Amino acid sequence: MAEVVRGRDKELQAVAEFFDAVTAGPVGLVFEGDAGIGKTTVWNAAVAQARATGRVLVARPAKAESGLAFNVLTDLLEPVFDDVVADLPEPQDRALSIALLRVEPGPDRLDQRAVAAATVSVLRRLAANGPTVLAIDDLQWADPPSARVLAFALRRLAGLPVGLLACVRRGEPDGLADDVVRSIDRCRRIQVGRLGTETLRDLLEDRLDRRFTSRAMARIDRVADGNPFFALELAEAGDDPTLQVPDRLRRIVSDRIATLSDQARDALLVVAAAGTVEVELLPAAVLQEIAGIVDLHASKVTFRHPLFAAAVYDAAAPEQRRQVHARLAQLVTDVEERARHLALAAAGPDAAIADLLADAAEHARRRGAPETAADLVEHASALTPNDQADVRRRRTIQRAEYAFHAGDLAVARETLLAMLKEEADGPQRADALRLLGEIRYLGDSFSEGIQLLQEAMKHARGDSALEAEIELRLAFGTLSTADYDAAADHAHRALDLAEQAEEPALLAEALASVAGLDVLVGHSVDNVKIARALDLEDPHRPASFMMRPSRVAAYLEFYAGHLAASDRLLEALRRRTIDGGEETDLPYLDGYLIWSACWRGDLPAAAAYADEALDAAIRTGSESLRSAALGFAALPPAFAGDSALAESRAAEAIQLAGSTGRRLSVLWASWALALVALAQDDPKAAHDALGPLATDHAIAEPIRAFFVPDEITALVGIGELVTAERSLDQFEEAAVRMERSWALMLSDRCRALVLAAHGDLAAASSTMQAALTRCADLELRFEVARTYLMAGQLERRCRRRGAAAEYLGQARDLFDAAGAELWAARTRTELARLGQTRTDPAELTPTEARVAELTASGLTNREVAAKLFISAKTVEANLARVYRKLNIRTRAELGARLSRHP
């Protein structure tokens, strides 16, 4: 019989609206509130309704199980696995089978991208047959690998009848729960609050089948404060509940459990230690006795509330707990779960169990669960016997490494600091200092991080592989402080050492680092080194994103202006990073994707990458990573014209760069400020932002001086032509020497501005035409738009109104398509001077007209995007404006309209 839900009219109305909306999903409904407040009661009612209207996949994660990788995904998909697996491609089938513990992972690291893709495939197949609801109670305890996969999948189910129905407990760390919730655009959060006294009275009298006086209810409600779970426990306890929650309530729960039989308490301890157990493992009489404390769901026994589990576990003697975990270790088959139970069953150091835990940790890492790996190897270190001090220290470093890649810099740092208090010397101390140095410069201080790396080098002498590792990190550390020459020197020393070490993966990283940094100091690309590095790269090796050869290859494509090629490589790395749970790498990785998307004119994509980078940086607690993320994240609003957000992010990035020593963050933050100023036709403010970055030195590689063309534009605007020409000569020389087509176009554009400022309009116009010719082959569509704008301004000065109108119109359409409001407004101002403003608000822009024409011809949004060299999101935005202006809703109506009025 279904439980009666009392006093939750608002919540039940939200459930009804959720089911009305799910057919046009994805849609989400999340109940939030304190422990015991009644979230699960409403959720249970919604799950019952979901079962009646379609398919529902249910998971009830427990805190005790949050360290088990893919535990929630298993609960959700295991019941439907056999129904859908036959249709999955082999890589997805195998990856999902590994994640769901149906097969062993083997020697290679699990491709979590394949797990995520398989989950998308499964949900699409299920949704094709009707509404499908993912129901997850206590989402805050979802294991991180499951949360990442679910967030990935839910973002890719547009238009499908899929719903997320979840509960989140207030006051608990939410892990990646928020990422899952935010992956659905249409998601409603409902705060489940206290119940009124009369509603509580009805609930208690119904549940306990007895009457309560007003005085008794007042006493209960005073302590329970409208919390129905607390009220029930207090009412069942009898007596006068005068003490306060939660300590008193915990005692009440303990007292209630004490009234049970020994057999029932033993059974409850098993459930508390395991999280869930199969129904058939408990005798029927015991199940009847504990019925008010546990729930039965899909043949599983779980606690009705975590307070029960905590009280049972706390009440057991240490020896009882160890015995239960020992029994559970014999029953479970999962490598990681068995190792965890063995660890909790151990009474003291045990070399064999410690080895099993270390193996299980590596198993978890290969499955893309670094958080779980860190926990398991911590247990392994604690159980390593005292006579194996070197082994214990190695495992301690390994735990810090896992935590570091998972983004938990604080745990990694504390772990290493505790180890370094020991007297150990030599390679292990060097390795600990190496990792601590990396954590410090990524955390809060590049100068202190570099000092730690230099100290590490003193202890690593004679170990060429370890020395090479340290030199690579010194290369990155000094690069981030903008000391390019020192970074290149460190990279070359790392390559010499890596050649001696004869470790292919390490050699790959050294080769790539040398190739990348040599370009930044002015040398041509060594394609032989890059090819060799990519051939030797080990994608499964736990290494920072900055050390990976594929990262260097992506950056070199970016330096050359090959944005699509760069994006492909970076996206592959990003997927691998997310799949592996390596939060620490995301802010840097997303940075160039943000920059590329801005230059391509895909500002929605840039903003999404920026949000991801900022979220990841905040989760790590790293001020250095936050500085990097903020510097890049200032660009999308700067390009779009959101001056307040751009200025806020840029100011914080510059402030953090000063405190952490990450000078490179200042470059993008200052550029963002200058872009806003130039869009507002304020060259002085732009020069104020970029002037401090300028130098009188030769430019080694144009990408290092990407902001110089805008500084030249600002200098021309304030009449500083001598300084502008000097900077232009330096930038142009680098562009010619390094054969950078994008930089050559910007050089021509700036040269035209300088010539026009000198009054030589004929030469300026000719030079601007050269810039426009170069635009044809460039992927930097935003810079192409700005060049059209400047060409239109120049043609107007030359009194060629027709050409001016054509160039300005092209600029306006490109800015409109990108969503760059300030630049579009400035372009319209220029058109107004020509008398070219639009008076009909229903008139389609050329870009809108072209999108409409191609869409009406039957092309998909992606195909239209490819033809027009814009993003699919930009196509969607243009179509939305077309539909609004033409007062239509469908592609069919669009085709009919254009056939009548081309």
From TrEMBL:
Source organism, top-level taxon: Bacteria
Gene Ontology terms describing biological process: regulation of DNA-templated transcription
Gene3D superfamilies: Tetratricopeptide repeat domain (1.25.40.10), Winged helix-like DNA-binding domain superfamily/Winged helix DNA-binding domain (1.10.10.10)
One cellular-component annotation, GO: cytoplasm
GO molecular function, one term: adenylate cyclase activity
PROSITE patterns associated with the record: HTH_LUXR_1 (PS00622), HTH_LUXR_2 (PS50043)
The HTH luxR-type domain, residue ranges: 837-902
Nucleotide-binding keyword on record: yes
UniProt KW keywords: ATP-binding, Nucleotide-binding
SUPFAM superfamilies recorded: C-terminal effector domain of the bipartite response regulators (SSF46894), P-loop containing nucleoside triphosphate hydrolases (SSF52540), TPR-like (SSF48452)
Protein's name in the database: Regulatory LuxR family protein
Organism listed in the record: Kribbella antiqua
